[in-house]
Write a structure and sequence with these properties.
single chain; six-stranded antiparallel β-sheet; six-stranded antiparallel beta barrel; 5 helices
Amino acid sequence: MVGVDPSARDADAFLPAVTESATTVPQRRAGASRSRPQRRWWLTLTGVGIVLIGGAYWAGAESASPAAIERSVAPAPRVPVTAAVVLRRLSQAIVAQGTLKPATVVSVSFGPVSVPAAQPIVTAKPIQAGAVVTNGSLVAQVAGRPVFTMTGSTPMYRDLTVGDHGPDVAQLQSDLADLGFPSFDALGVFGHGTDLAVRDFYDHSGFSAPVVAASSPKHPQVMVPQAEIVFVPKLPAVVQHSSLILGQPINNPALTLSTGRLRALIPLNAAQVSLAHVGDVATLFVYGTTGTGVQIPAKVAALKMGSSSATAVLRPEKPLGNSLTGARVGARIVIASTRKAVLAVPVAALYTGADGQPVVTVIARNGRRVSIPVSVSPEIGGFVPVQPLRGRLAAGARVLVGE
């Protein structure tokens, strides 16, 4: 009897199990490796399907039927455009800008100095721009002698003394009388009364009266030098410019004076000139240094025609301060207006009916349209005064102006 090693028996018994296990594991791994390509193929097929479905959806979204295209390009429904009927005073105006200027500007030149061996040097602080000069005002001192302004249209072209006569003497006598120094001489004749009046005027002004050198020392005759009186056509006046400099010779014109109330000079183009008229009502818009403005009523006083343009001269109803000379202003010139409030519609609201009569179409709140024949007046500022011939037309009603 052959003996069996227990350890060997256990090993034989264990062998089939080991062999089975060794042969089964490689088969499962082979099966697993064959399933991976199949899984990749299904994933690829699924991705392709998703892409195809997305493309089909995009194509369907981007494409449309002919009916849909026609609906997308069809015009929007017509909506009536309306405007309100108004009841108000209508006006049409020219709006422009200009400058404030005085009515008259005068250049003043001084005569030759009458002081022997003296030079025409300004010997006192000269008058400044903006100063107001009146009849008898002291406007300068040259070579120690005064220069006065007086009212007159005849220039001071000579020295005046007893025995002279003429319009220059007459205006000197009138000015002296206005200042409180009457002469009682015949008008235009320089007599002893005028001599006395001149003396009194000079004494009152703080200067000695000039006399004729050849006259009697006991009874010297007064002589008014040409250089000491400047006649200005209209006073009072405002100094616009002075060329006088203390210690320097006179540079004529010595002064530039402006007289009369400030007026607005408004440039107009060719089209505006044909619409404006003398007497038209206007409004001036004057602005101060702070930017605030005031409205001043005015009227067109004149239209000055140029070669290619014109200027409207607007006269304010109340005087403006001389400090505004040269200031820029706005102007509104009314060229057409109604005397009272009228019923009116925009020009675009007027249509012509079958019978040739002007009509307006009223749009009711419910959308109903009613054509109302009207009589019309000339257009003013884009509106036409109307009166209904039949039916009712009231302020606030909506009328058709377009669609």
